[in-house]
Amino acid sequence: MAQFEGQVSKRQQILDGNQLQKLSLTLNRKELHPGLDISESGPPNGTALPPGYHLVYFTPSVVESDLGLDGTDTSFNAPLPFTRRMWAGGRIQWFDGKPLCIGEEVEERTRLLSAEPKQLRDGSDMVLVNVEKSYWGKMGLSLKDQRSWVFRRQIPTSIADIHSQ
């Protein structure tokens, strides 16, 4: 993972109202904002994304066979044998007056903050990975999304098969 330290991965995407509409309706929310009914059509360009809705954008741009077993991007995964990825926490910071808006081109910048080997009380080992994603729109930095994952050793197939029965 050391090869990623200090590097910033950048991706651009135009925020599509249709994608936002589908997420909002999936969450049983017909009004994206008070008075803005999106049950029949997506929100118009210029509509600000509600907090947390940035998660529907910037999905992995790889073929399925290049995704992890859990369907996620493997760019910042720990190396073998640490293949079991678990959410360890996160924090999102929004910057007032700088919303991401439908129809604008946004840049996502991702960087590895740290990758630390850890040992648990039972003697087993894991890797704690911390990543920061920052989202830049036409008004500048809109939000920072810090994510922490724990990677544990792969479960031996024979044990996994026993528990699935």
UniProtKB/TrEMBL annotation:
Domain of life: Eukaryota
The protein's name: Mesaconyl-C4 CoA hydratase
GO MF, one annotated term: (3R)-hydroxyacyl-[acyl-carrier-protein] dehydratase activity
Classification via PANTHER family: HYDROXYACYL-THIOESTER DEHYDRATASE TYPE 2, MITOCHONDRIAL, N-TERMINAL OF MAOC-LIKE DEHYDRATASE DOMAIN-CONTAINING PROTEIN
GO terms under cellular component: mitochondrion
InterPro entries cross-referenced by the UniProt entry: Mitochondrial_HTD2 (IPR052741)
